Amino acid sequence: MPGPRSLKELIDRVSGRNMAAVTPAEETGIVDTRPYPFLALVGQQEMKLALLLALINPAIGGVLLVGPRGTGKTTAVRSLAELLPDVPRSLCVNGFGCMPEDVEMRGFEAVCPDCARKFGQGEPLARLDRVRLFELPLNTRLEDVVGGVDEQAAEANRFRIRRGILAQADRHLLYIDEVNLLSDMIIDAILDASAQGQYTVRRGPVAATYHSRFVLIGSMNPEEGQLRPQILDRFGLRIMVRGLEDPEERLEAYRRVRAYYTNAHGIAAEYDEASRIARQEIETARAILPEVRLPDPIAHQGLAMIDSLKIASLRAEITLFEAARAYAASDGREEVDPNDLRAVAPMALRLRRSSFISDYFQVQEEEESQITSILEADYPQKGAPSA
For every one of its 387 residues, what pLDDT tens digit does the chain have, with 9 covering 90 and above? Predict the structure, then answer.
């Protein structure tokens, strides 16, 4: 397959071709765990593009997939890990997740004694490993998410804080299915850690700070409840995932799913080359991203869009501009143009207006106008003789 000019072109090309016949796999008694190929998903171009942009530029602020059951949201997310380059993984045997960068930034006190000794002796503290997808179960506790006291260490009168899911997901993918059903306290902790890239856990006299530089993806079925407005605002790109309407696309989706159930390795092999190209394109776009510029005239176009929609949150332009930069990088360019803004604006700006806030401020403006009129009027003082 010749290399595409951009990730979008690759998505369009691969999604548009028909699935070749796949021979059923022989029964070996071994469980096959290869995920469904991301590029084998039929249709849903906007969803696939948004997820790839989030992989290129985590500063977008994550992705929220909104749609009914059975539209491929979870399948798409679970297939993303194979498109990312390997990342450093800690070799700490004590479970602290010690990394070389911890020593370089904060000294030997930032790692456990065993890792400090290894670093001093020139031994590696990490090795390259595949990106992992961490899925947050709905019954998770806050201590599971942020970390808590290590009970085994406490029994030996040694107090330490074990890493939670947020720390384990550093440099990986964190997926929250049915995010609208998760407790407010937990989702607040996740969003804060995601936005800052690190978080601190305090348990009595003991405290620990962990990195949390993950790509955050949430999905929800609006039939089962809505997200609080302040939580919804924290997600960067918002994708409305509808069911396929074209009968031919639905038939092709069925054929691909059946082929996957018949021979998962067979369908994965058919998309291996396209997946390899996508992985290279993502890696190249990540390298280009720091050099991508947003010219002032283009930025003002984006600000005009936001003003026209009466969006109050400053996160709108952060997401819009960072997504446009990622889109330009995915096309191999170092400057954002108007077409980049138009391509990502629907994903970045939808579901950001609040009719409640608009009505609230309108009532308040009427009151402010009345107060101003009173202040400007020449009222006689109380008790003063009238003219």
Answer: 555 566 777 777 666 556 555 555 554 444 456 788 898 888 888 999 999 999 999 899 889 999 988 888 998 998 888 888 778 888 887 767 778 877 777 777 777 788 888 888 888 888 888 888 888 888 888 888 888 766 554 444 455 677 788 888 888 889 998 888 888 888 888 888 888 888 888 877 777 788 888 888 999 988 888 888 778 888 899 999 998 889 998 998 899 888 888 888 888 888 888 888 888 899 999 999 999 999 999 999 999 999 999 888 888 999 999 999 999 999 999 999 999 999 999 999 998 876 666 666 777 877 788 888 887 776 666 655 555
pTM of the model: 0.79
66: β partners? 220, 240
Q: In the annotation, is 106 catalytic?
A: no
Cβ 50 vs Cβ 322: under 8 Å:
no
Amino acid identity of residue 106, one-letter, is R
In angstroms, the CA 123 to CA 114 distance is 11
Question: How far is residue 14's CA from residue 250's CA, in Å, rounded to a whole number?
Answer: 16
| Per annotation, catalytic residue among 315, 333, 342, 350 | 315
Token look-up 């690759």 returns: 10
> Which residues have a Cβ under 8 Å from the Cβ of 303 and sit 6 or more positions away?
317
